[in-house]
Amino acid sequence: MLDIRYIRENADKVQQAARNKGYDVSIEELLKLDDERRSLQQQVDELRERRNANAAKMSGGKPEQSVIDEGKQLKVQLAEREEYLTGTETKFYELLNNVPNVTFDDVPIGGEDASVEVRQVGEQNSGATDHLDFATKRDWVDFERGAKVAGAKFYYLKGDLALLENAITQYALDFVVKEGFTFMTVPHLVNQRTLTGTGFAPRTSEQSDEYAIEGEDLSLIGTSEVSMTGYHADEILDEKDLPLMYAGLSPCYRKEAGTYGKHTRGLFRVHQFNKLEMYAFTLPEQSAEMHERILAIEEKLWQSIGIPYHVINIASGDLGAPAAKKYDIEYWSPVDNAYRELTSCSNCTDFQARNLNIRVRRADGHVEVVHTLNGTAVSLARSLVAVIEHYQNEDGSLRVPEVLRPYLSGRDVL
Fold first, then answer.
1. What CATH code is assigned to 112-408?
2. List 8, 19, 269, 405, catalytic entry
């Protein structure tokens, strides 16, 4: 959520930023509701003062009839104004919650194709066997039985591929812990306040990506970012403790709504996958530096595994509501001869923290909203795709990246 005071002072900028992100919101309508809300609040406050003064006149003896009549009238007027205020506030916050974060000045404007390459690392080789064909031939993955049990795009990992996923997870976990992140497991279900507060508002109703639990105020998480954001909800952190850096491991559940036309083969885009996510709470002046730090950790991790990639600065139209800026690491696919998404990292500034009332007390006693950032260490299904494409042998075996061998009992070939 953006600060309404910021919106009042930067209405045109906020409106243009929303358009650039593809969100259909009217800042003019929001500000009209804001004016109405503040006017109604003033009226309610004045009526409450008059009601209290009237109540004081009634104490200590039998009041005059005019005082009694005034009290009845005030009660009716106050109830009416309070009802109007409640309705206006509901409309106001519904609209405010649909306003996305404002992007940084160095974010490219446009759709997905407008994203800008920052750098390339590694060679663009070609000629590999598709990961699904490779893994199916080895009986390492089973989408047919996954569909039988849960539906399309659910799957079983088996044998050495399941062990490889575990090895990547353990290696990445050791890696980020050494970088200063505190490991945590997280709830896989969150309430609506946490989900909405994290800022996962779809551009349209057709793009809602979460699995909701019918009859419960709970939804399955699409990323541990959601649970980790809510970890410090309604808390005031101490300046000396920031930045706070966490690494959350969880399964992720996504309908993958709104992904028509995107690359979806095999394990690349599925409804359930495991992911290790980095997360940071920082002071406002720390967030830009932390964003670059998280990106550097992601790059160092994937360089150590030996996967070629490039980094792109994501264009405005491909950013979600919370992000002011996002980098993606896309690995080079020798099957598709194209770059495919592998990890991402976002600076969400104070957007998520304001929603969930997460603040910091400065050394001078001043309290303000913190900034939040997130970055993927490893998204396991896609990680397996990248490793299979780059480490397969012609005889159908798979070389194990050197850094992963200690996590596979020293095996160098699967």
1. 3.30.930.10
2. 269
In angstroms, rounded to a whole number, what is the distance separating the alpha carbons of residues 355 and 240?
A: 23
Rounded to whole angstroms, the Cα distance separating 312 from 301 reads 17
CA distances to 162, 199, 206 from 257, rounded to whole Å, are: 27, 17, 7
Of the residues 115, 344, 379, 383, only one is catalytic, namely: 344
Centre a 10 Å sphere on the Cβ of residue 91 and count the other Cβ atoms it contains: 14
Predicted confidence (pLDDT) per residue in 336-389, tens digit: 999 999 999 999 999 999 999 999 999 999 999 999 999 999 999 999 999 999
**What are the boundaries of each domain within the chain?**
4-96, 112-408
Question: Does the predicted model carry a pTM greater than 0.85?
Answer: yes
Q: Facing residues of 272 across strands?
A: 253
> Which residue in the list 254, 293, 340, 354 is annotated as catalytic?
254
Residues 107, 352: Cα–Cα separation, whole Å: 19
Give catalytic status of residue 344 as yes or no: yes
Whole-Å CA distances, 396 to 25, 249, 392: 53, 31, 7
**CA–CA separation, 273 and 266 (whole Å):** 12
Contacts of 341 (CB under 8 A, 6+ apart): 328, 329, 330, 382
Question: What single DSSP character describes residue 392?
Answer: B
- Residue 231 CA to residue 187 CA, distance in Å, equals 10
With beta carbons less than 8 A apart as the criterion, state whether 373 and 347 touch.
yes
Active-site option among 8, 341, 361, 411: 341
Which amino acid, 361? Answer: R
Residue 332 pairs with which residues in a beta bridge? 339
Does residue 382 have an active-site annotation? yes
Under CATH, domain 4-96 is a member of which superfamily? Serine-tRNA synthetase, tRNA binding domain (1.10.287.40)
The count of other CB atoms within 10 Å of the CB of residue 266 is 22
Phi-psi bin for 139: left (phi > 0), alpha (psi -120 to 50), beta?
left
In tens, the pLDDT along 86-97 reads 999 999 999 999
